[in-house]
């Protein structure tokens, strides 16, 4: 059985999340390398600066995670990744909806995220979930996407 929980319940959470970032997110980035020691050294602090929800088998290491933060009425989805072997089971969707719900409960009116231009699967996923591209940054090769969030009861 799969559980959704906050990061930190298991000692292998952080190493597993960093592995997922190195293997799944960083290779798509135009601005960082999976072997950049400065970027890797900053990841633990980056996780501490927001909230991270993981999907994991009962008592097991994370299969995927979403990391996000809130600034006033804005929910910033920083990272969402699911291990390739665990995709196509609704994990990414469940994680995203949990982050959006937390944002809504915290007073966020809008969600914002950035997608690397080469990440076509992510672009399709976010479009299906109601996100719209609003601004392209050609030098960084990313696009900003937004989605209005509904308050509870609407």
UniProtKB/TrEMBL annotation:
Listed InterPro entries: Acyl_CoA_acyltransferase (IPR016181), Bact_Acetyltransf (IPR050832), GNAT_dom (IPR000182)
PROSITE patterns the record matches: GNAT
Gene Ontology MF terms: acyltransferase activity, transferring groups other than amino-acyl groups
Record-linked CDD domains: NAT_SF (cd04301)
Domain N-acetyltransferase: 4-150
Keyword terms: Acyltransferase, Transferase
PANTHER family, A to Z: AMINOALKYLPHOSPHONATE N-ACETYLTRANSFERASE-RELATED-RELATED (PTHR43877)
Stated name of the protein: N-acetyltransferase domain-containing protein
Native source organism of the sequence: Paenibacillus pasadenensis
């Amino acid at each position: 059985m799969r559980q959704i929980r906050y990061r930190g319940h298991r000692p292998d959470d952080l190493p597993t999340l960093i592995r997922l970032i190195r293997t799944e997110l960083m290779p798509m980035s135009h601005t960082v390398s999976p072997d950049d020691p400065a970027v890797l050294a900053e990841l633990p602090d980056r996780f501490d600066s927001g909230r991270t929800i993981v999907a994991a088998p009962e008592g097991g290491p994370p299969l995927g995670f979403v990391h996000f933060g809130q600034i006033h009425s804005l929910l910033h989805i920083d990272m969402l990744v699911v291990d390739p072997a665990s995709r196509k089971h609704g994990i990414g969707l469940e994680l995203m909806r949990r982050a959006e719900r937390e944002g809504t409960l915290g007073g966020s009116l809008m969600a914002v995220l950035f997608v690397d231009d080469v990440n076509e699967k992510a672009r399709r996923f976010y479009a299906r979930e109601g996100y719209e591209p609003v601004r392209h940054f050609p030098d960084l090769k990313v696009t900003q996407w937004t989605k209005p969030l509904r308050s509870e009861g609407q």
